[in-house]
Amino acid sequence: MPDLVIRNLHANIADSDTEILKGIDLELSKGEIHAIMGPNGSGKSTLSHVLMGHPGYEVTEGEIIFEGENLLDMAADERSRAGLFLSFQYPFAVPGVTVANFIRMAVNAHRKGGPDGADDPIRIPEFRKQLQDAMEMLEIDKSMSSRSLNDGFSGGEKKRFEILQMAMLKPKLAILDETDSGLDIDALRIVSGGINALMGPDMGTLIITHYQRILDYVEPDRIHVLVDGRIVRSGGPELAKELETTGYAELAKETVS
Amino acid sequence: MSTWLETRRKAAAESSEALGVPSLSDEHWRFTSLRGIDFDRYAVSAEATAGDMAGAILGEGDHAGRLVMRDGGVVAEELLADVAAQGVVFGSLARLADEHAALIEPILGTIVGYDERFAAENGALWTDGLLLHVPAGVKVQLPFHTAYEIATAESAQQWRVIVSLGEGAEATLVEEHLPGQPGYANGVAELVLAETAHLTYVVVQDRNDASLHFAAHRAEIAKDATLEWSACSIGSKTGKTRMETRLTGEGSTGRLSAVYVVDGKRHLDLDTTQEHDAPNAVSDLAFKGVLLDSARSVWRGVIRVAEGAHGTDAYQENRNLMLSPTARADSIPGLEIDTNDVRCTHGATAGPVDPMLKFYLMSRGIPQAEAERMIVEGFLEEALERIPDLRIREALTTAVMRRVPV
To answer: B363 — contact with chain A (CB < 8 Å)?
Structure first.
């Protein structure tokens, strides 16, 4: 059985009848990179939020199974400790909490997640070393670690810090929501380099993107096209090129008919 | 007792009598009701009550001087010999009143006048408090620690503080109002900074949750002098605290940072002024509060820019984090500007913890309660990080966070 199984997933905006996801089926195993592509408003970001347990959506039907566990029974923090990671399209500023403190709290929350739930905080020198290495890989200036997380950061900086958190938390499933948006070519190269460096047999990656640009740097095994809350087509990497020429509208038309 | 002092007490008593206890129809008391409070039932303590102070947040470590006032008088005071040798005066105001009349007379009752009921009452009835004088050019590195406590339940403590810094003098004064017993505390602090002086003033109001706390702190800041004022209000049942700065000299700076946490049915009322009477002065006020349960906070802040105070740079903000739907925060910012070429900005907000921000933190594995606590601490930290002394900052952070149950 694949590590992530999404079956017939339907989701609404919480407290409303507006259905955004209209029956999604998807399977992904560790070691694989999948991309979900689709036009604006197709439900891409909703899918990433629903996977992570965003309180603004309500799952009305279907299931999400990760490593045999039903994610829908778990709060966002539990999902994270189970190995999920979401790189936000619009990361939040956390005023008054430094990058280093925030990441250390998160790392310690993960270490605490063991069977006995006991505290096992990471030793400070070890944490510093890991953080420094990850910052170097992402070409982030050392002095940034003492700043409030994302507070006054540029769009590109925020994206780098999402990947920095990913590097420190070592997820089993990384969901990258429009991580390429707002990045210039250099930043895209650095961020993609980071993702590739973290990728391996123990991690699966779900890239959510509007453009195929990031797929020139991070090569997907599978591509799924999401239109109006449904996956209308799945295929190999060549699908991205096809989309580039035909566009989503054309593709949606031919699939529906 | 000196005649001048007697004359002032008499004037203050007359004014207090004439003013009477304010009601909701007085503009400054619109949000703070004193109805039903029987001030007469609190007998003013005339004497000190011996004993150790308990509950001080910043009492640890080395100090240039220490002073404790319990009930009506100072019970303990000490001053490092080498600091005293530099001409620094630090000690009980009652004890030093005659000897240092020349220092006190120009300040007492002139910085904080008798035009408001509680200040006037204090002018008539104050029993003791602090006199701190740092002569011109003297820079005292270690902080002075002072504490005020009601030790006898249901009594009134009338405390008074006078601080004068000579030209170029530097000092740090910590003023803690301890939990002690429930009662009625009323006080006035008058601070005068001469040219290029630098005062760090830290006020912790942690009075008993059943206490009434009234205070009028006012500072006058001369040319190129700096007041770095931090306030932390976590105690008392109700009352009003005035925090006023008057920038009398060109190029002077007054920075005022405050954090407060109010829970239960407690009520906190903070009244601030930033008065620009000279050109090119800077004032910067940041108040951040956390409200729980059915608690209430009121902040009224006015920036006044006098005619001719061109180049003024004034800022004020009050932000409140509402952790309960039944809590309430009122922010009343105000600008009174009588000159051109000034920069005055203000902002006020009140809102709950952002659920999306909480989701962001939880998506990193941080449990809900911890995430909420982190958001609250981060919120307060923005005001606390303005406190230059790291030890004071950390102690205050711990003290305020103890009040946050999440």
So the answer is: yes
